[in-house]
Amino acid sequence: MAGTPLLRLSDIHAGYGAASVLFGIDLEVRDGEVVCLLGRNGAGKSTTIKTISGLLPPSKGAITFAGEEITGRSPMDIVGRGIAVVPEGRRVFPSLTVQENLTIGAYARRSGIVPKVALEEIHELFPRLAERRNQMAGTLSGGEQQMLAMGRAMMARPRMLLMDEPSMGLAPLLIDQVFETINYLARQGITILLIEQNAAAALDIADRAYVIERGRVVLSGDAADLQESEEVRSTYLGV
Questions:
Q1: Is 187 within the bounds of a domain?
Q2: Same domain for 76 and 128?
Q3: Which of 15, 41, 124, 198 has the lowest tally of Cβ within 10 angstroms?
Q4: pLDDT score recorded for residue 3
C-alpha cells in the first residue's frame, strides 16, 4: 500500500536557455507507488525527469525527496540520496563490458563500496547479463542493453527509480519482459516514476498517472480511472 509522499514537485518551471518547457508542474509520488507520466512528444515528460535528477536546474519551484529539499542539487548527490535513473535510449557505455557498466552504477552509493551481493541480485534478475558479463556493452542487442541500463540503475540500491521510455524500440516480447521486471521491482518496494510511450501497458501496472500537455499537468488520478477516461482513451490508448 502506497504511503506518504516520497517525491514532491511544487510549481516547477524549467527549460533550455530561453526556451521554457515546464510551466508550474505539481506532482507527487508516494512511497511504494508506480506513477506514470503520459503525454505527447514534446509535452515535457523527459524534461521533468531531467529536472528531478539534477541534470536540469529548475528556474522556479521546489523538489523534495524523503522530506528534504533537493532542488538544484547535483546529479551525484541526488543518486546518493536514493534516486536512480534509467535514461531514454539506454545510454550504456559501449566500450566497457557488461560487468564494468554494472560496477559504475554502484559508485554513487554513499558507502562507495560495490557489494558482491548487489551484483548477484542483478545477475539473478537478468541472467543474460551474467552470461554476457565480459562482453562489450556496445555489442548487446537493444533488449539486452535495456536490461543493462535497468541493472546499472539498480546497483545503486535506489529507493526510487525514474524510468524514461524503457520499452522504446523493443520487440513486443521484450516489452513484455520489461514490464514484468518493472512489476517485480515494484513488488520489492521500489518506488517508480515511469515515462512510457506504451500508455496502455503503463496504466496497467501503475497506481496513479499524470497527463502532461505543453508543460502543464492537465489530468491526474488513479490509473484505473484514467483508463476509463474518454480523453485518455482517445488520445493515448487509441480507442
A1: yes
A2: no
A3: 41
A4: 61
| Cα end-to-end distance, the chain, whole Å | 30
CB atoms under 10 Å from CB of 15, counted, come to 17
Q: Are residues 207 and 184 in the same domain?
A: yes
Between the alpha carbon of residue 186 and those of residues 34, 53, 58, 180, 190, the distances in Å are: 7, 20, 28, 10, 5
Q: Are residues 77 and 176 in the same domain?
A: yes
- Specify if 115 maps to a domain: yes
* CA–CA gap between residue 161 and residue 85 (Å, rounded): 6
Q: What is the pTM of this model?
A: 0.87
Per-residue pLDDT reduced to its tens digit, 16-33: 988 999 999 999 999 999
* pLDDT (0 to 100) of residue 90: 72
Number of domains into which the chain is organized: 2
- Residues ≥6 apart with Cβ < 8 Å to 117: none
